[in-house]
Amino acid sequence: MLIPTFDDVLAAHERVRPHVHRTPVLTNGHLDGLSSASLFFKCENFQKVGAFKARGACNAVFSLTDEEAKRGVATHSSGNHGQAIAYAAARRGIAATIVMPETAARPKFDGVRGYGGEVVTCAPGTKAREETVAGVLERTGAAFLHPFDDARVIAGQGTAALELLQDAGPLDAIVAPVGGGGLISGTCLAASGLSPATKVFAAEPEQADDAYRSKRAGHIVEDDAPQTVADGLKASLKPLTFHFVSQHVEAVLPVSEQEIVDAMRLVWERMKIVIEPSSAVAVAAVLKNRELFAGQRVGVILTGGNVDLDRLPWAG
């Protein structure tokens, strides 16, 4: 198991710089008041493809040798990683095949195809994804880029927290959502190298709380197809990301479906920006655990803004 380092995050930052945005860090007085903390929001909803996943995807795709790249790339994804791989592959001029569950949000299908990626659908669930992508790899010989259990992807995702710490200054804590764990792992790496005193917290839906249970159990506990409005956080940890969650994440903070929806709506109304439910999980965790963060400077990574506007979670 190749565990990435802080130096890998620095190298990734240079590698992805021509291909991604340095997204803004925003503040909001109303949310500061609700949380009794000073919050700094890293707005990856403004990122290429609408999500932080562009960082890890570009680092992985542009790390490939020319020999590896000429056969194209393939992955499985509920949407954001798939869009990001398709985007990165297009930037490099190679083919991309994305295995997606048939239940994925329509804009995410459209996004993959819009960047020139080929979509192969499968049933919901990790097992179905992995079996389907295995068939794609056999058919195409493509390089497989795992959505999160890949040192190159983790190092790329860590560049979001790197920029957050550079732009916001010293932080007492950073809160980011956890699904498969690529972002939270990269966040741990960035904090360890740039601000070792910063504590990293993972936020997770109660209905997909495998990371919370895994950390408590001391081993990976998998959910195959959990049901949550936060569709980007349904994946379970893998060995590489469990290493970071078990050893470097301060705590995993679960939140309810209603808390996710309420936080999402609050950000839309008060910050005037579009975030998806998975992003709102981190906001909900800060608001739910006010006593944990009161009086502190807290970074919150808003992971993406890819929302199906015809299926808003508060629209009845």
TrEMBL record:
Question: EC number(s) in its UniProt entry?
Answer: 4.2.1.-
Q: In this record, what's one Pfam family?
A: PALP
According to the record, the signal peptide region is none
Q: Which InterPro entries match?
A: BHydaspDhtse, Ser/Thr_deHydtase_PyrdxlP-BS, TrpB-like_PALP, TrpB-like_PALP_sf
Q: What class of enzyme is it?
A: lyase
Tryptophan synthase beta chain-like PALP domain location is 17-304
List the cofactors: Mn(2+); Ca(2+); pyridoxal 5'-phosphate; Mg(2+)
Any one GO molecular function term: lyase activity
Query: What are the alphabetically sorted keywords of the record?
Result: Lyase, Magnesium, Pyridoxal phosphate
This chain's protein is named Beta-hydroxyaspartate dehydratase BhcB
